[in-house]
Amino acid sequence: MSAHDAVTALRRFGLGARPGELARIAGDPRGFVLQSLTDPGRARIDDPALEPSHVVFAAAMEAQRRQRLARANPAAQDGGAIMRDGAGDGSAQRAGAAPSPSMPPAARGAEAAPGNKAATAAPAKAGEIRREAFVEEAGARFRHAATTDAAYLERLVMFWSNHFCVSANKGPVRGIAGAFEREAIRPHVLGTFTDMLLAVEKHPAMIVYLDNQVSVGPGSPAGTNRNLGLNENLAREILELHTLGVDGGYSQADVTNFARILTGWTVGNLVNARSEPGKFFFAPARHEPGEWAVHGKRYPARGLETGEAVLRDLALHPATARHIAKKLARHFVAEEPPPALVARLERTFLDTRGNLAALAKALAQSEEAWQVAPTKVLPPYDFLVAVLRGLSLEPRPPELLRLSAMLGEPLWRPPSPAGWPDADTTWAAPSALRERLRIAEVAARQADRLSDPRKVVDDLFGEAVGPATRQAVARAETREQGLELLIMSPDFQRR
Questions:
Q1: Angstrom distance (rounded) from CA 271 to CA 262
Q2: Stated pTM of the model
Q3: What is the pLDDT of residues 83-137, one digit of tens each?
Q4: What 3-state class would DSSP assign to 265?
Q5: What is the pLDDT of residues 197-222, one digit of tens each?
Q6: Which residue pairs from 399-408 have beta carbons closer than 8 angstroms and sit at least 24 positions apart in sequence?
Q7: Are 270 and 61 a contacting pair, CB within 8 Å?
């Protein structure tokens, strides 16, 4: 095998080499990539310090309830008119009522439950609870990315997390954006697209991010009584971004009908005894009755099952296969991927009924993926992780969060539901490269004082490094300058 293949394995299919890794995989770099797909458990982050999303969500609701009571009247008891039947305002969490017999057991026992953030962080504000959870999740993700031996698997997690993105810029989502990835993406990264799609669209982070908790069927009991209406955000983004794609042949009528079907998909609260706070909840009183057609197929009225049936059909549609194949090839290989590669991935998706492990394997076994020259600029997050791995630096989550934001890619805060773009022009602006140089200077100072930049080049790239990079590093006047030149070289910046 060539040195080029080993570098491709660690960069195109990974997050950059760690010291000694290039030599270790040199005998079978393609086998090393495929080995990442043999154990889906390596995609998980099992950190006991990380709370489930519903615990953080419920804790924030409880904090808001306490704040409202304190502002109104410390002795007041907030009535049960708030957050009934999974309803919510635009922020997804109005304050709940004070504990009462009508509350679900999880909410009634919050103050006594050990380890429950609603109890242990009772004096904290909702924003503080969410901020703490966000930083903890980010730290776990950075540490996992910097140390994993299954970097291809982590890259797949990152791809799907961006495909099904949520944004922590929306207040209630902030505390559970990381848990969304842990709970809805990582367990399914080598499963089926259908299972991942169902997990994603039912997760409270997605429900709240796309405002489905405020969507009410006009003909439902809640809509009739309260003069509430549809919100089409979730239905539209599922069709346009998550499944069929913008050219997938759906119409505005499909969006509206699908939105009707998804009414009642909401999040449990502190008041409704039929729901568990912070978890997905189907509220029949908010669901639009009737039979509706989506993308040429009519779906009978079966409540929650109707929405699930639409998602299962969308997951296996040929337009979805085409959309996913193009996006996957563009992300891993080139902005304009080889048509033969896209066609092979599309066929694999259809033949295996959306088996994501088979899709990832087909990509890794495609000659095109190993032959195309490295032209894609590393996104900011990937750049930071590559520096951590290459120089064996200890992840410092608060600083890494600051740097990723400064470079233009704040973690779990994409600019829109479409996620972060794959176009090289997104990350190659002169101002962004200047910021990368500043980071390279700091990283070079923090690196092992005994490290020889020339040996680092050999360790991370071997014979595959470009002659200009090797020469520039060799001629550097200081150790720090040599490392800076390596980090800023095209070899390091592109994959």
A1: 22
A2: 0.90
A3: 334 444 333 333 333 333 333 333 333 333 334 544 444 458 999 999 999 999 9
A4: strand
A5: 999 999 999 999 999 999 999 999 99
A6: 400/138, 400/142, 401/135, 401/138, 403/439, 404/380, 406/435, 407/380, 407/383, 407/432, 407/435, 407/436, 407/439, 408/380, 408/432
A7: yes
Q: How far apart are CA 241 and CA 160, in angstroms?
A: 12
**Can you give the pLDDT at residue 227?**
77
Query: Tens of pLDDT along 39-66?
Result: 999 999 999 999 999 999 999 999 999 9
Could you tell me if 409 and 480 lie in one domain?
yes
Separation in Å, CA 58 to CA 88, 237, 476: 14, 26, 55
Q: For residues 94 and 82, give the distance between their C-alpha atoms in angstroms, rounded to a whole number.
A: 7
HEC profile of 206-256 = HHHHCCHHHCCCCCCHHHHHHCCCCCCHHHHHHHHHHCCCCCCCCCHHHHH
**Are 464 and 406 members of one domain?**
yes
Q: How far apart, in whole angstroms, are the C-alpha atoms of residue 167 and residue 157?
A: 16
Same domain, 354 and 431: no
Long-range contacts made by residues 75-84, C-beta under 8 angstroms, separation at least 24?
A: 80/271, 82/271, 83/269, 83/270, 83/271, 83/272, 84/269, 84/271, 84/272
Q: Please check whether residue 128 lies inside any domain of the structure.
A: no
Task: Give the phi and the psi of residue 380 in degrees, each rounded to 5.
Answer: -55, -45
**Is the pLDDT assigned to residue 235 strictly greater than 80?**
yes
Structural domain range at position 445: 380-493
Residue 95 burial (10 A CB sphere; 0-12, 13-18, 19+): buried
Please give the tally of structural domains in the chain. 3
Q: How many CB atoms lie within 10 A of CB 397?
A: 17
Q: What percent of the chain has pLDDT over 90?
A: 84
CA–CA separation, 91 and 208 (whole Å): 8
Asked whether residue 175 is assigned to any structural domain, the reply reads no
